[in-house]
Amino acid sequence: MIALWRWYVLGGALAVAMAAPQVLADALKAGTDATPLRTSSGLTLITRIRLAPRGGIGFDDLFYSPALNRLLAPAGATGIFYLVDPTSYKLSPLKAAEDAGRRYRGGHDDGITSADSDGQRAFTIDRTTRTLLSLDVKGGNVTSRIGLTAGPDYVRYVASTRELWITEPDQEQIEIVDTLPSTKTTSTRSATIRIAGGPESLAIDQARNRAYSHLWRGQTVAIDIASRQVVQSVTNGCKGSRGIALDTEKNLVFVGCSEGRIVVLDERQAGKIVASASTSAGVDSIAYNAQLRHLYVPSASDGKMSVYKVAADGALQELGRMPTAIGAHCVASDERQQVWVCDPDRGELLVFKDR
């Protein structure tokens, strides 16, 4: 693949104020490498954004924040939290945690690996120190750190209650932390929810006041946010339950299965399986574009991403498979019809344009 152009960007004074000299030197080496490529999937690879100046990154979770209009990309053991402008692809690197000092050898067990935002602050979890961090995205500083009761996996913000929900699979629970108003700088632990056999992944339906997660094998659970009770557990047909995405308008829940399957559950029919499709093994995160009604399912085993058109009743039509990278397993979709896929071995983000 021939690079047509390359340029380097840095997130301005914010990064200068925040980062240590070596962090700054490394961040300056991050940049983009654009190589347009179109396949039958309807996606075009428009750029590659390099976050690691050398080696790979233990990516686990990418998250697009509409309120910030930024992609949130926690960069594992580097300790750097990247805000990425989806228009210019400009990077704003924030030093969220200390470099874990471990060379990337695969996996995503170190450093900061999941993120969300309330529109003013960004939140991330640090697996190495088992902490939750709040960052002021304008000032560029860490405003609070709170120790968690167990190793964290995913963090998601619940707008209706101003809470952060953090999955902690080792303790089979979701830990809840109050974020408090944005003028406050501290957070307090609130409660835990027991999820025996899980939890894996986490998605919030703000409109219906529900949270969704999986058990590791074969079940998807719905949690009422107000009561903090599991109100529904349904069979999803997965040997290994992994990614989750929602169509909140049609009340559909999409489930990614690690063995290479995508399943659609219809909440209008009490979580009944209404569609499924096969893809390659190694499915982890999945993403959905509600405007296009397109579902994106990367497979780490063969380095391809399946793209599906979703009908109003949940039926799936495969549009094609887009080459990504071996090991690419996390994905996010933004409001510009772009799809972001992590490439852990190269420490890059791949950006695709959907039609």
Number of helices: 2
Structural shape: globular
Strand fraction band? over 45%
CATH fold naming? Methylamine Dehydrogenase, Chain H
Structural class, from helix and strand content? mainly beta
Q: What is the CATH top level name?
A: Mainly Beta
Low-confidence stretches: 1-29, 34-38
Q: How many β-strand runs?
A: 31
Q: Please compute the radius of gyration using only Cα atoms.
A: 19 Å
Give me the oligomer status.
single chain
Name of the CATH architecture:
7 Propeller
Helix content bin:
under 10%
Measure the end-to-end span: 22 Å
How would you describe the overall organization of this protein?
The protein is globular, with a radius of gyration of 19 Å. The chain is built from 2 helices and 31 strands. It has a single domain (5-353), classed as Methylamine Dehydrogenase, Chain H (7 Propeller), CATH 2.130.10. The strands form 7 sheets. Strands 1, 2, 3, 4, 29, 30 and 31 form a 7-stranded antiparallel beta sheet that branches. A 4-stranded antiparallel beta sheet has the order 5-6-7-8. It has a 4-stranded antiparallel beta sheet with strand order 9-10-11-12, with no helix packed on it. The model is unreliable at 1-29 and 34-38 (pLDDT under 50). By secondary structure, it is mostly beta strands. A hairpin with a 3-residue loop joins β22 (252-257) and β23. It has helices at 12-18, 21-28; strands spanning 5-8, 31-34, 37-38, 44-50, 63-65, 70-74, 80-84, 91-95, 112-117, 121-126, 131-136, 142-147, 155-158, 163-168, 173-178, 188-194, 200-205, 210-214, 219-224, 229-235, 241-247, 252-257, 261-266, 272-278, 287-289, 294-299, 304-310, 316-323, 331-333, 338-343, 348-353.
